[in-house]
User: Which sequence fits this backbone?
C-alpha cells in the first residue's frame, strides 16, 4: 500500500495493484452528484442567478448522456433540497419552473436515450402539476434499460429517514414478527432497489454532504471539485472516476474488497 501526497493536508491511499490505464477503468455503477455553484458561476459571468440555474439544468442533460456513454448505471442528482425553500420566493419559483420543464422534456429525451427517470424526495409539498409530471415520466420511462437518472426533488436525507421510520412502524403494526436490519430499513427508503453510490461528486469547492443521501453514502468515496456545476464537463466526470479507481475501498475491513 502506497501513500500518494495530493496536498499538504490530504493523502489518498492507493493500492498499486489496483492502478489501471484509462481503457481498463473500473466504472462505478452508481454516481451521485451535488450540482452546486450555479449562482456563483452566473455572478462570475455578470449574469443573475436564474441564468446559472438554467445553465445548470442544461448541463445535467449533457452529463447524464456522458454518464450513460461511460457505462454508469445509476446517476443521482440533487436538484432541490428540503432546505432550498428558504431561498427568496422568486428563486424558488424559477427553480420549480425549470423542474417542470425538465420533467416534461425528459419524456422525449428518456425515450431517445433509453433512460429511466425516477424521483426521490417528499412529493406531498410539490405542486400537483409537478407531482403529475413526475408520475407520468416515471411511468413512461419505467421499462427503459439504459441509465437510471434519479432526481432528488424536495429531498433531505434526514427527512427521508424519518419517513422511512414512520413507514416501518406502520408495517410493524401489521406484521409484528418483522425484525429491523439494514437491508429491511433500506426497503423503506426512497432509494429502495437502487444500489448505494460508490462515488459522490460535489462541484463548487464546498466540502460537505448537505443532507444528501446520508444513509446511502455511508461507504461512498467523495470527490470535491472546484469548478461550478454549469462548467463541469464529461472530462471532469472522467477525472473523478480515475480518482475513484486509485482509492482502495475496504469497507472497514483490511483488504480491497471492491
Ligand atoms: C446549487 O446552486 C444548485 C441548486 C439549488 C440545485 C441544482 C439545480 C439545478 C442544477 C438546476 C435545476 C435542476 C433541474 C434538474 C431542472 P446554488 O444556487 O446553490 O449556487 P451558489 O452556491 O453558487 O449560490
Assistant:
Amino acid at each position: 500500500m502506497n501513500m500518494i501526497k495530493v496536498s499538504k493536508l490530504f493523502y489518498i491511499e492507493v493500492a498499486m495493484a489496483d492502478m489501471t490505464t484509462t481503457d481498463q477503468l473500473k466504472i462505478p455503477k452508481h454516481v451521485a452528484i451535488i450540482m452546486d455553484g450555479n449562482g456563483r458561476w452566473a455572478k462570475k459571468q455578470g449574469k443573475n442567478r436564474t441564468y446559472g440555474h438554467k445553465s445548470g439544468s442544461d448541463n445535467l442533460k449533457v452529463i447524464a448522456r456522458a454518464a450513460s456513454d461511460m457505462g454508469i448505471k445509476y446517476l443521482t442528482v440533487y436538484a432541490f433540497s428540503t432546505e432550498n425553500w428558504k431561498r427568496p420566493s422568486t428563486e424558488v419559483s424559477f427553480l420549480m419552473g425549470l423542474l417542470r420543464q425538465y420533467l416534461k422534456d425528459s419524456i422525449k429525451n428518456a425515450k431517445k436515450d433509453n433512460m429511466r427517470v425516477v424521483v426521490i424526495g417528499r412529493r406531498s409539498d410539490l405542486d400537483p402539476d409537478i407531482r403529475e409530471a413526475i408520475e407520468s415520466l416515471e411511468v413512461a420511462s419505467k421499462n427503459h434499460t439504459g441509465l437510471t437518472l434519479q432526481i432528488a426533488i424536495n429531498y433531505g436525507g434526514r427527512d427521508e429517514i424519518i419517513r422511512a421510520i414512520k413507514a416501518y412502524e406502520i408495517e410493524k403494526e401489521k406484521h409484528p414478527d418483522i425484525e429491523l436490519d439494514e437491508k429491511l430499513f433500506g426497503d423503506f427508503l426512497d432509494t429502495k432497489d437502487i444500489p448505494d453510490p460508490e462515488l459522490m461528486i460535489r462541484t463548487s469547492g464546498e466540502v460537505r454532504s448537505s443532507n444528501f443521501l446520508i444513509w446511502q453514502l455511508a461507504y461512498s468515496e467523495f470527490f470535491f471539485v472546484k469548478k461550478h456545476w454549469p462548467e463541469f464537463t464529461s472530462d471532469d466526470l472522467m477525472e473523478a472516476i480515475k480518482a475513484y479507481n486509485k482509492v482502495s475501498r475496504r469497507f472497514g475491513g483490511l483488504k480491497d474488497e471492491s
Summary: The first helix runs from residue 38 to 44. The beta strands are 2-5, 11-14, 30-34, 74-81, 116-120, 148-155, 199-202, 221-224. The pocket of farnesyl diphosphate is lined by residues 35-40, 53, 56-57, 60, 79, 84, 95, 98-99, 102, 151, 204, 229 (CB under 6 Å).
